[in-house]
Every structure is written in C-alpha cells, then in structure tokens.
Amino acid sequence: MKTxxxxxxxxxxxxxxFFATGLFVKETNYTAEVSxxxxxxxxxxxxxxxxxxxxxxxxxxxxxxxxxxxxxxxSTYKMVVENQGQEIVMTEKVLAYVPNEKVxxxxxxxxxxxxxxxxxxxxxxxxxxxxxxxxxxxxxxMACMFPYFKGTFKKQDQGYLNNFKEFVEKQ
Length: 171
Known about the structure:
This protein is α+β, with helices and mostly antiparallel strands. It has a single domain (2-60, 98-170), classed as START domain (Alpha-D-Glucose-1,6-Bisphosphate, Chain A, domain 4, 2-Layer Sandwich), CATH 3.30.530. It has helices at residues 2-24, 40-47, 53-56, 140-145, 150-170, and strands at 28-36, 60-67, 76-83, 86-98, 102-109, 112-123, 126-136. Strands 1-7-6-5-4-3-2 form a seven-stranded antiparallel beta sheet. A hairpin with a 2-residue loop joins strand 5 (102-109) and strand 6. Belongs to the AHA1 family. Keywords: Membrane, Transferase, Transmembrane, Transmembrane helix. Residues 39-133 form the Activator of Hsp90 ATPase homologue 1/2-like C-terminal domain. Pfam families: AHSA1. GO terms for molecular function: transferase activity.
C-alpha cells in the first residue's frame, strides 16, 4: 500500500508540474544560425524563391499562393507538410520583408502558432542567417508541451538551415 501511495504521489507531482508549465511559460523561444559561403544578395534571393523550398524542407508536399502583395509583406500562402505520415495544412503570412536584411514569417499550423524571424548579415562573400523563433499555442495542453520540445524544434530548424546552406552552395 505504501508503494502505491508513493507511485501516485510521483504521478500527481509530475502532472502538476506539467500543467503548471502552461501557466508560467507562454512562449517557447530559440535561435539557430548558419553561415553560407555565398554573397548576401544571392543567398537572400535563393532563400525567398518559393520553388526552392522543397530543396531544403523535404516535408513540404505543396505550396500555393493565397494572396501575394507588392513588397511581399502581408502576403499569405498555404502549405501542406507531411509530418510522421500525417498531412498538416499550414497558413504562412509574411510579417516583414526587407531585401538582403530580414524576413519574418508567421505560421499557423493547427494548434501551433510560430513566428520565424530570419536575419541576414554579410561578412564579405559569406552570409550569416540567424533564425529567432517563437512558438505558442491556442491550446493549453499544447502550450504545456512546447517547452519540453524546444530542443526538437531547434534541431529541426537547424537541420533546415543546414539543408539550405548545402543547397545554395551547390549552385
């Protein structure tokens, strides 16, 4: 009986910590970075060509324009991504677009609301891309989970940046 009380106490404590996470951590933030051996103008153009996305984000199944504005800021796109055999429909909105400097994109993927802020800096013929990412959710349960998956999110985005580096340097 004592063993059962200890096990139930541990389970209760873990449950309380899990649900308290959503009260205290409203957003999960992380940074990823890559240096590309190409000039900033070439890197920025290649990064923002829609037809190139599948070359460095292999999970993308389709990408379509919903509304494209002059200057890109405010443009909206629909993407279908395959994640572990399941298709997820995402809405992408460009929040900021400054040529050769910055692109900020907001993704709405069901219960995940993610903002990716890509900053491009030039170091001669090298370009550094820094991603500042922020994830949150409309769902309280998902918001409780995100902080525990921060490493997974960062690893995935770093992988995409590495894929992009490899793709652009081959050209």
